[in-house]
Amino acid sequence: MCKNHTIIFTFVIMVQKMDMADFISNGFKQFIPQLSIDCTIFGYHENQLKVLLRSWKGVDGWCLPGGYIDRSESIEEAAHRILNERTGLTNVFLQQYYTFGDLRRLMNPGNEILLKSSWLYKDARGSWLGDRTISIGYYALIEFSKAVPKPDEFSKDCAWWDIQNLPVLLFDHEQMINKAINTIRTQLKYQPVGLNLLPNKFTLPELQKLYETILDRTIDRRNFQKKILSLGVLKRLDQRRKIGAHRSPSLFTFDKVKYKRALSESKGPGF
Amino acid sequence: MCKNHTIIFTFVIMVQKMDMADFISNGFKQFIPQLSIDCTIFGYHENQLKVLLRSWKGVDGWCLPGGYIDRSESIEEAAHRILNERTGLTNVFLQQYYTFGDLRRLMNPGNEILLKSSWLYKDARGSWLGDRTISIGYYALIEFSKAVPKPDEFSKDCAWWDIQNLPVLLFDHEQMINKAINTIRTQLKYQPVGLNLLPNKFTLPELQKLYETILDRTIDRRNFQKKILSLGVLKRLDQRRKIGAHRSPSLFTFDKVKYKRALSESKGPGF
DNA sequence: TAATATTGTGTGCCAATTACACAATGTACT
DNA sequence: AGTACATTGTGTAATTGGCACACAATATTA
After folding, report:
1. Residues B171 and B106 in one domain
2. Is B252:B238 a contact under the CB 8 Å cutoff?
3. Residues of A in Cβ contact (< 8 Å) with B101
4. DSSP label at B163?
5. Nearest CA distance, B211 vs chain A (angstrom)
6. Residue range B151-173: average pLDDT?
7. Hey, are the CB atoms on A101 and B74 less than 8 Å from each other?
8. Are residues B51 and B174 in the same domain?
């Protein structure tokens, strides 16, 4: 009972803070009630696939950056706006992947909060607090170094987390992340995943480790290089990376024209 | 100007009718505003892939069967309910595939209706008529003979249409159908498409024509049979179909246990 | 009984995937 | 300087899978 009160209370705080943050950054917007967007933002750094998460002051646990949809913007535009508010980036590779609408998706596992209880609270968007909010999931692929995590003044923190070492997540956001990973895994053949996650210059072993991380399996180094190079979407540069006491690998960059042509011919960089 | 008035007027009629229909079939429900579900229902009959469409009295053009989400049901449950209201079927194979949220998705192409005009009309769900409604797209695969199209009293008609010969569609519903076809095309390898679209007993040429229709290309008959049979998901029955002046093809049925096992091993019936 | 259209099965070629081996390179240590 | 070592770069053979193609079996009709 006491526990439930606490959780409801943190809900109220979060909703109020989110409204305030939205208001400050966007001015007055007429948000669609009971509908939101959550972004799973992937980055890749030091051979680790990472997601950008935020936490709230006064609330334990992390969650995906998200926001609401204004009546005057498409959901695509809303997703880009939300992403920009959080990372400062524009023109990001962003894809819708699933809409989450389970009744209990905002309940933390194990907690038995009854919906429609007397604690119901109608917030500024006309949603009933405690009502289920349906959330449209987008995933973004961004170059790690370009993103500047922007914690607003209501965030406790905003940080990158390793996919293989996630913190405790609020709501159903762990499920959302898992579904996003699964999506980029199956789309690796057909979408420019490597191009969007890696920096402009990279080595073949770096590209391979990205593939291995996403696919969660090892790939034979020799076969990988043979196949990737045969696709003709990479340009070998006259530079090498110094990697300590070993042979220096060549740096490559994506030939974006050829990459797009290969994708449109559905000859993507698959494995 | 006059044309715009007419279109707005048909909108009003449709919304009112939809509310009424929902009310009659469901009793009072607290629908989530500005959010809907549309179902692309696929059936297969006489070597043709078909979709179930409905039309409204007093409105030209056809659209996908759809409905609203109640605050007390998950979107999955809502999709099943809507499908059941339209076809009478339960336990249908149903998959979410995309959420459509363009600002102008309810506008017919070529019409320049300004949003937020003075004609705005607030309907029973708190939506502004003329506001964009976001719609979650589901596709269903059902056995043609089991579905009984159920036009309610506000429908002009409810009928199956060949994929290759669609009527004029309202809103963005042609785009929704195309995206659904594209989805089952790419998921043919990983989802039990044949199992859900075909009747219990079928011949290999019938199965092949289904694949050819969905993939929109021809497949070599001998290679198709070899590959499909090698998957081990079919059981050959001791029966043959009479097809006139030709050799009688064997009837087959799906071995559902082996089918599911093959899917989970991602060795689906691909091409 | 022959003609015809359709089903059922087999064979060989080519491309792609996979398994596996060895040479080249950059640094550190002796 | 020379050797040890880990890593990169390239090659080759075996296997698998997709694709093109040929022929026998079957059911009806003329």
Report:
1. yes
2. no
3. 69, 74-76, 136
4. G
5. 19
6. 87
7. yes
8. yes
- Which residues fall within 8 angstroms of residue A236, CB to CB, at 6 or more apart? A250, A251, A252
* Contact partners, residue A261, CB within 8 Å, separation at least 6: none
pLDDT at B223: 96
If asked whether residues B27 and B120 sit together in one domain, one would say yes
Which of B167, B187, B207 is at the close of a domain? B187
Q: Are residues A203 and A172 in the same domain?
A: no
Q: Which helix (H) or strand (E) holds A212?
A: helix A204-215
pLDDT tens string A103-144: 877 765 433 333 333 233 344 344 444 568 899 999 999 999
Cβ contact, residue pair A134, B32, below 8 Å: yes
B245 and B118 within one domain: no
Q: Are residues B183 and B206 in the same domain?
A: no
Domain holding B223, by residue range, is: 199-264
227-246 on A, CB < 7 Å from strand C? 227, 240, 242, 244-246
CA distances from B150 to B29, B54, B86, B89 (A): 21, 9, 5, 11
> Residue A5: how many CB atoms within 10 A of its CB?
11
| B166 and B94 within one domain | yes
A179 and A85 share one domain: yes
The whole-angstrom distance between B73's CA and the closest CA on chain A is 6
Q: What is d(CA A208, CA A57) in angstroms, rounded to the nearest whole number?
A: 39
In chain A, at which residue ranges do the beta strands (DSSP E only) sit? 31-45, 48-56, 62-63, 66-70, 93-100, 121-122, 128-129, 134-141, 155-162, 234-240, 250-254
